[in-house]
Write a structure and sequence with these properties.
It contains ten helices and 13 strands. By secondary structure, it is an alpha/beta fold. Strand 2 (14-18) and strand 3 form a beta hairpin.
């Protein structure tokens, strides 16, 4: 990374309405914020409403130094009611037809794509045709750079995904990050009948010509496959406050380390350390200690 380039999280921005209060959330914002903590130029792309929640998000992003490209649209800023089970695992009730369902493609986004070295996107913000068109258009523009990292973080939520969306997203990405439950869904969607975990993963890699496949398995551990190599790391035992945003911090740490020239195994180790720390803090955007972010 000899010249200044951006690492983009594109999709939903919102307020997580947690049992202990409201906190800014949305996977793209979480990803971009944690990327920035590793010393890279993270930026979140989305849309907000002309309302108090939108103003509050802008205030928070300015306060924490998160770069953003947020369109103002005539829909309310997104909110999600989050409840936690006894293990701190979140359940989400996601409001429909909100600002991030209407992300416009602007000339600024076209310019941003030309200086983007990595982009992370998911399935949730593609639930609406307007945002899906913008996201796919942006990702395709970034993909014109053959060295760019195109990260699809499945992030399957409720019924907000379908086969065409997932298939196109997989065809565009070179890094896929999912959890073990999403792996089961993907195998069903794409007719992978093998019941062996590793063979399922290798089948996905071959089917979509992936460079890297990351599968997180909650409290058990996580895997990273590259086709010819495999890395497994058990999940560290920590006192869990909640797991909101842990997966996004994992993705950000992994991408940051790859962009800074670390090996896949080193990037995996950093991702595990980062997500474990985030689990010990409430909310998705805690400040990371320097022993984690120093690469």
């Amino acid at each position: 990374m000899d010249k200044k380039t951006y690492i983009v999280g594109i999709g939903e921005v919102l307020w997580d309405l947690l049992p202990d209060g409201s906190k800014p959330g949305g996977a793209p914002a979480n990803f971009a914020y944690h990327i920035s903590q590793f010393g890279l130029d993270g930026i979140v792309v989305s849309a907000i409403g002309n309302d108090a929640y939108g103003e509050d998000l802008l205030h928070v992003y300015e306060e924490i130094g998160l770069h953003h490209s947020l369109a103002r649209v005539g829909y309310p800023t997104g909110t999600v009611a989050v409840t936690l089970d006894a293990a701190g695992i979140p359940q989400y009730d996601i409001t429909r037809n909100v600002a991030w369902d209407h992300i416009p493609f602007t000339p600024e986004l076209s310019e941003l794509a030309e200086t983007t070295s990595a982009v992370c996107f998911g399935s949730l913000a593609q639930r609406s045709p307007e945002s899906r068109e913008t996201i796919i258009r942006f990702v395709k523009a970034v993909a014109h750079n053959p060295s760019a990292l195109i990260v699809f973080d499945g992030n399957l939520r409720q019924d907000f995904y379908d086969l065409p969306t997932v298939e196109e997203s997989l065809s565009l990405c070179n890094i896929l990050k999912i959890n073990d439950e999403e792996l089961t869904v993907f195998c069903r969607l794409f007719g992978i009948s093998d019941t062996d975990f590793r063979k399922q993963c290798l089948a996905l890699i071959e089917m979509f010509d992936l460079k890297i496949l990351i599968v997180t398995c909650g409290a058990t551990g996580s895997y990273v496959f590259t086709g010819d190599t495999e890395s497994y790391i058990p999940t560290p035992r920590v006192e869990v406050a909640d797991t909101v945003g842990a997966g996004d911090s994992f993705t950000a740490a992994f991408v940051a380390n790859i962009l800074k020239g670390r090996s896949v195994t080193e990037a995996h180790q950093a991702a595990v350390r980062t997500s474990a720390y985030v689990c010990t803090r409430h909310g998705a955007m805690p400040v990371l200690p320097s022993d984690i972010t120093l690469i």
